[in-house]
Specification:
Length: 353
C-alpha cells in the first residue's frame, strides 16, 4: 500500500497544501522540505552507530617466499618464517556476525610490518609510538542469503593503544573509517580490534593454498567499528507526530487515533540507502523497489515484523516501510526506532492503545 501522491504532485499543488487532508499535507511538507534541504539534511550527521563485527577462519599469509611459482601450492598447513620489518602480510577472514546477529562477508587486510618502538631492538623501527605497522582493511558485508550490502574501508596503525575517543570495546590499534559503498556509502568514523582475541589469527606462508583456509582453520577475532553515516535512517516528522499511518485507513497515528498491538502500520522515512535496480541519485520507480540493506524496527526494544521496505515513487530519499506492531506492547507512548544495515536512527514516540 502506498499513499497515492508523489513529490512532483506536492510541488505542483503547493498553493493548495493548506487545504489538503492532514496526512497528505504533513507528508507533502516533509517531501518539499527534503527537496529544499542539502543532501543529508534529514540525517544527524554527527550521530554514530557502533558495529561489533565477528570474524572466523582468520589467517595471516606472510609474504615469506620470493618464488612466485610456489605461491598457493602447498595443500597442508604451513609454518612461515618469522615476520621481519618491511615484510608484508595479507589477512583473509569470514564475517560471521554483526552486533550478535548472523551475517556473511569477507574481511581482507594488507599490512606492512614495521615493529615501531621508542627503544627498538636490531631490525625493528625507531619511533615515538609503539605500533606493529600500517594496514588497509576492507569489510565486505552480505546478508545471510548472500545479498550484497556494501563495504567499509579502513586504514590503520596496527597494534598499540587505541586513540582518544575510540570505541570503548577497542583494545588495540588506531583504525580510521575512510569510506564505504552500498548501504555504507560515505561512511566515516574510527574502529579498533577487540581484546583479548578469542583465537589469534593463524600465521601461514604464502605458499599455502588459500582455498583450504576454512578446512585448515584459523583465528576467531572481533572488531568494533563506530560509523558516522552520511545519513541516518530517520522517520519523517509531521506537525502531529511521526509519519506513521494505519495501513488499513491511511490515517496518521496520533494520540487521538493510536495504534494497537499487532496492527499493520506504514511509516515514511529517509536515509535507508540504495534500493534494488536503481542507481544512487536516480528517482525511485513506481514499481516496488526494495531496500538493499536489512531494515529493522524496534518498538520498546521488541522487534517488529517488517513486511516491506522500499523507495517511495518519484523521490530520491523517501522510503516506505510496512510493519506489524508487536503484540503485548503496553498502552501509552511507545519508543519506535528504525535501523538499516545495523545503523540506527533517532527514536520517536508512537501512540499505542
Amino acid at each position: 500500500m502506498r499513499i497515492d501522491f508523489t513529490a512532483f504532485e506536492c510541488i505542483s499543488q503547493t498553493y493548495r497544501i493548506v487545504a489538503m487532508p492532514l496526512v497528505r499535507r504533513s507528508l507533502c511538507l516533509a517531501l518539499l522540505m527534503s527537496a529544499l534541504l542539502p543532501a543529508g539534511g534529514w540525517g544527524q550527521a554527527t550521530a554514530s552507530t557502533t558495529l561489533r563485527v565477528d570474524v572466523e577462519n582468520a589467517v595471516n599469509y606472510l609474504e615469506d617466499r620470493a618464488d612466485v611459482t610456489r605461491l598457493g601450492t602447498d595443500t597442508h598447513a604451513t609454518s612461515p618464517a618469522p615476520l621481519k620489518a618491511f615484510e608484508r602480510l595479507t589477512q583473509i577472514a569470514d564475517i560471521v556476525a554483526v552486533n550478535g546477529k548472523p551475517a556473511k562477508g569477507t574481511l581482507l587486510a594488507n599490512s606492512l610490518n614495521l615493529t615501531l618502538k621508542p627503544a627498538p631492538s636490531a631490525g625493528q623501527s625507531l619511533a615515538d609510538i609503539t605500533r606493529n605497522g600500517i594496514g588497509h582493511w576492507t569489510f565486505e558485508f552480505l546478508q545471510p542469503d548472500g545479498t550484497q550490502l556494501g563495504t567499509i574501508f579502513l586504514v590503520s596503525l596496527n597494534g598499540g593503544t587505541p586513540p582518544p575517543g575510540a570505541p570503548s570495546l577497542s583494545g588495540a590499534g588506531s583504525f580510521t573509517v575512510v569510506g564505504g559503498t552500498g548501504a555504507f556509502l560515505g561512511a566515516r568514523g574510527q574502529a579498533g580490534a577487540i581484546l583479548p582475541q578469542t583465537i589469534a589469527p593463524r600465521a601461514a606462508s604464502v605458499t599455502e593454498d588459500p582455498s583450504l583456509r576454512r578446512t585448515i582453520g584459523g583465528g576467531k577475532i572481533s572488531f568494533v567499528i563506530r560509523i558516522i553515516a552520511q545519513e541516518l535512517p530517520e522517520i519523517i516528522a509531521t506537525a502531529n507526530g511521526p509519519a506513521v499511518v494505519h495501513t488499513s485507513t491511511n490515517q496518521l497515528v496520533t494520540t487521538t487515533n493510536p495504534a494497537h498491538a499487532g496492527e499493520e502500520l506504514t511509516l515514511y522515512a529517509t536515509g535507508l540507502g540504495p534500493v534494488k535496480g536503481v542507481e544512487v541519485g536516480q528517482p525511485f520507480p513506481a514499481s516496488p523497489a526494495p531496500v538493499i540493506a536489512p531494515v529493522e524496527i524496534a518498538v520498546n526494544g521488541s522487534a517488529a515484523t517488517v513486511s516491506y521496505a522500499g523507495g517511495y515513487p518519484g523521490t530520491l530519499d523517501g522510503y516506505q516501510v510496512n510493519f506489524a506492531l508487536p503484540s503485548g506492547i503496553a498502552s501509552g507512548l511507545a519508543n519506535l526506532q528504525l535501523s538499516a544495515a545495523w545503523i540506527q536512527g533517532s527514536a520517536v514516540a508512537l501512540a499505542v492503545q
